[in-house]
């Protein structure tokens, strides 16, 4: 009897859909909570952005490039004809961020504040901004902030609920979060916003999720997944005292081990879909079940491109766009059945939107900490016994941006404490005080790092002092000479930091500039940094230009040449001697081009094209490269734009573009090329001829785009 009863119970457990996961009866999800997760498409499509990781610049770059916002931060408007009357309306679109907006970069707080603002703006115009959580948002709640930058952690300092927290400080990258933990807990605006997010969203025939999905999605639909993660988030925030059923903790990924179950196949952590380890039949079953044309995921980085997987059923869009990974700033747009991948250029740090956001945050941090607490911080900052507390106190002083004389003195005093030296240097960098007192203190540190006591003589101290000089924008000749001394002293890391500091500060000394030019010519691992420093300084000396042209002619395959290129293009017009040197250098270089990476081949060819456009040999090589079947499409499109901009007016270039459009391998390339031509050469007869012919193209997408471009030209 007992045996029969046991069998019945087991049968019931294994056949309850809400409590099984991929055949595993131990893994459960919770009942739906009624939050909408499925949306109809809008007329201006869907734009999806991958892992931002604290890079506010990257977010702004994409939004401006895609036309979601204006350069001054307003929701973009467009003209529309309603009842034969032209009116102005807001763009109607879905914008989605697929998680991991915190950690690694400094500006997660700026990103979140801007996304909250955009969500309100979008609703005003009938649009939606969807922000999905990633595994790093869970890490914040679990105090696993090892990937957070010091700047990011300190940017939340005003939200710390108890300023005694800093006794948890352990070392320079692992401590009790300087406020980020409290920012996302309790009843703060960030906590409320985080626990309202959907983990999986469907927009038309596109499914969005941070890491991925597997066959479990057939038994556990998005409304159950979303409700389960929201419940766990509220529990981790301290808003729900009762822990959810431990059998639902798999949804937290590996972090679930703390609560009962670790499971790396969950929606916030699986990498199987991005690595194409999920059987294609399972992906097809999921798409069929939910009426999907594609699934879009982040999480798994490829710094070179957005990856199109499973024959177009999956798009992996995490391109490591944060500065730490130096990947492409990418986004994906879905409009109808067309998917467009765009790689944007990074806006500058002095862009008004970025500057305003930083200033607003600084104002917040200045105003939130009381004077009595400031006095306590000053007292703690040079405490020789409790140096862990002292480090935290210095960080808070620096990020208050108050720059009170007492605070500055406390930071300068800390320079004499071996255990606080690097933290004090960091604090001076943040406070940005270019005063004689601060400059003298930094110079003292650098000089002692060569000749003083042993604790000064470390690469980390040297780098921190040079970075501090750069941060306070110290351009005095004696400062530049002191930093230049480290171009030839210290290890490679110190040399690199010194060279880049000289570039950022702007070198005027011809002797320093010639040293940098020699470094470029040597083709060493310092060459690229030296080229950057020269480009930033932009000297007009003949000898510098001559040295860099010689370096360009002998550039080796691992050296990026964008800095050399930008510098040389700014030096027009060239003297006759330099033009002849460019021509002869190209003849020497031509035979070696095949050993370079393709993107470098194009950089070199494009540079020579713009400097000596009359050289037929350059044109031949450039066109040969653009018709290479192995060229990545994202690179190819950007190359086409540059080719057209520089050469199109030439008769030969026009003929090449005709042939190129006929033989081009994809609709995306043809459309991008037509778009560039129509935008830049509106009144060109051949452009009109090409667009007219393209309207009868067998590809409906190309034909429709050609028609739209032709109408646009006529309207203009």
Structure description:
The protein is an alpha/beta fold and 716 residues long. It is built from 30 helices and 13 strands. Strands 1-7-8-9-11-10 form a six-stranded mixed β-sheet. Strand 3 and strand 4 form a beta hairpin. Helix 21 runs parallel beside helix 23, helix 24 runs antiparallel to helix 25 and helix 28 runs parallel beside helix 30. The longest helix has 17 residues. The chain starts with a helix and ends with a helix. The relative contact order is 0.06. The N terminus is likely disordered.
Shape label: globular
Sheet-strand content, in percent, reads 5-15%
Span between termini: 86 Å
Give the helix tally: 30
Radius of gyration: 29 Å
Determine the fraction of residues in helical runs and give it as a percent range: 40-55%
**Structural class category:** alpha/beta
* Sequence of strands across the biggest β-sheet: 1-7-8-9-11-10
What is the mean predicted local confidence, pLDDT? Answer: 81
Low-confidence runs (pLDDT<50, min 5 residues)?
1-22, 165-175
The total strand number stands at: 13
Largest sheet: 6 strands, mixed
SSE topology:
Blueprint: H1 2-14, E1 38-39, E2 46-49, H2 56-65, E3 77-82, E4 85-90, E5 94-97, H3 108-124, E6 128-131, H4 135-141, H5 150-154, H6 180-183, H7 189-194, E7 200-203, E8 206-209, H8 222-236, H9 280-290, E9 294-297, E10 307-309, E11 314-316, E12 329-335, E13 338-344, H10 352-368, H11 371-381, H12 387-399, H13 405-414, H14 421-431, H15 436-451, H16 459-471, H17 477-484, H18 492-505, H19 510-521, H20 527-537, H21 542-553, H22 562-569, H23 576-590, H24 598-611, H25 616-626, H26 633-647, H27 651-663, H28 667-680, H29 685-694, H30 700-715
Parallel strand pairs: 1-7, 2-5, 5-6, 8-9, 9-11
Antiparallel strand pairs: 2-12, 3-4, 7-8, 10-11, 12-13
Helix pairs in contact: 11-12, 11-13, 12-14, 13-14, 14-16, 15-16, 16-18, 18-20, 19-20, 19-21, 20-22, 21-23, 22-24, 24-25, 24-26, 26-28, 28-30, 29-30
